[in-house]
């Protein structure tokens, strides 16, 4: 199995530059409480499982007393009961005692709304799929990918340009999976896949017989978040082509 070339945090950073937002498991909104509550209880956070995805309103009701509660989902239904002094856990999320504040009274209601359109687990699978694709792409040129040093030695550093390529391909396929059929004309998303292909070709062009390659590194997180994938960015297709030519001239 291929080692992932990039991490989800890098992919999410790029996805944030798109007009349409892609939100993973941990996203939620409207963390609130019933204005008719007698007590001061508040829920400060909730921890969704990496396998969860969806938009759902969840209610926590202190029906019997000021300590015990029941949890239901608007569409999912009853999820179980818990106590404010211990961790509540279900197949979708957990709530720890530290995520409560204030004092509940019998009949009080707090609620939150999940707001994700892809699970963390699925997003990581996209990254793994694109890592396998990159290895196979390289294998077309070198005949085999089993001699890649970072696949033989799990402690070996992976080339930065391949991390970059994986970030772009993963972001592209996650986006079109979430927004299947969406109109992308004029969106930087349309360039992400071709940008990744150019990066892979740049790696191949610079790899010598000993498996050593020289490629540009990402400049900064700010550049990745704000400019990558846009025409005229430090790594657009024209710039990548120029780098290949400069490298060939230098090594003559």
**Can you tell me the residue ranges where pLDDT is under 50 for at least 5 consecutive residues?**
209-235, 246-252
User: What proportion of the residues is helical, as a percent range?
Assistant: 25-40%
Spatial ordering of strands, largest sheet: 1-10-4-5-6
Order of helices and strands: HEEEEEEEEEEHHHHHH
What's the number of extended β-strand segments?
10
Provide the β-strand percentage band.
15-25%
* Helix vs. strand class: alpha+beta
Categorize the overall geometry: elongated
Compute the number of helices: 7
Mean residue pLDDT: 84
The end-to-end distance, rounded to whole angstroms, is 37 Å
Largest sheet: 5 strands, antiparallel
- How many domains? The number is 2
User: C-alpha Rg, in Å?
Assistant: 24 Å
């Amino acid at each position: 199995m291929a080692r992932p070339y990039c991490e989800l945090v890098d992919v999410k950073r790029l996805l944030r530059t798109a007009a349409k937002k892609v939100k993973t498991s941990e996203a939620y909104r409207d963390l609130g409480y019933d204005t008719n509550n007698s007590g001061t209880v508040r829920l400060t956070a909730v921890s969704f499982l990496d396998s969860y995805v969806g938009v759902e309103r969840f209610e926590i009701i202190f029906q019997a007393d000021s300590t015990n509660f029941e949890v239901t989902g608007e569409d999912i239904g009853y999820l179980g009961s818990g106590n404010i002094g211990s961790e509540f856990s279900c197949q979708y999320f957990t709530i720890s005692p530290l995520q409560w504040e204030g004092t509940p009274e019998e009949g009080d209601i707090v609620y939150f709304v999940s707001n994700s359109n892809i699970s963390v687990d699925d997003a990581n699978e996209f990254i793994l799929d694109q890592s396998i694709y990159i290895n196979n792409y390289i294998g077309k040129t070198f005949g085999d990918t089993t001699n890649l040093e970072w696949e033989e030695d799990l402690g070996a550093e992976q080339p930065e340009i391949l991390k970059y390529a994986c970030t772009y391909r993963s972001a592209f396929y996650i986006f079109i999976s979430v927004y299947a059929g969406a109109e992308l004309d004029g969106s930087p998303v349309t360039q992400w896949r071709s940008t990744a292909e150019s990066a892979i070709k740049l790696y191949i062009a610079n790899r010598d017989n000993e498996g050593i390659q020289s490629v540009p590194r990402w400049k900064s997180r700010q550049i990745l978040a704000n400019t990558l994938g846009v025409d005229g960015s430090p790594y657009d297709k024209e710039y990548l082509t120029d780098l290949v030519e400069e490298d060939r001239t230098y090594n003559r």
